[in-house]
Description:
The chain has strands at 2-5, 12-19, 27-32, 39-45, 47-53. It is mainly beta.
Amino acid sequence: MEKMICPHCGKKFRYEEIKNIVSHTGKEMAIVCPYCDLIADRKVSHGYFVSTKIIEQN
Ligand SMILES: [Zn+2]
């Protein structure tokens, strides 16, 4: 589980790589911001990325 900041809306979210062991070729997969639904980044993955909102705790 890693964190990143969306370049579009500036909010912080977590993303997790879900590895798909059936598919053995790595390709660029989009990491989609859970706040604004835009592509925040692309990384080479053997699966896909799931992003989740970070609930700020005050
Ligand atoms: Zn965003």
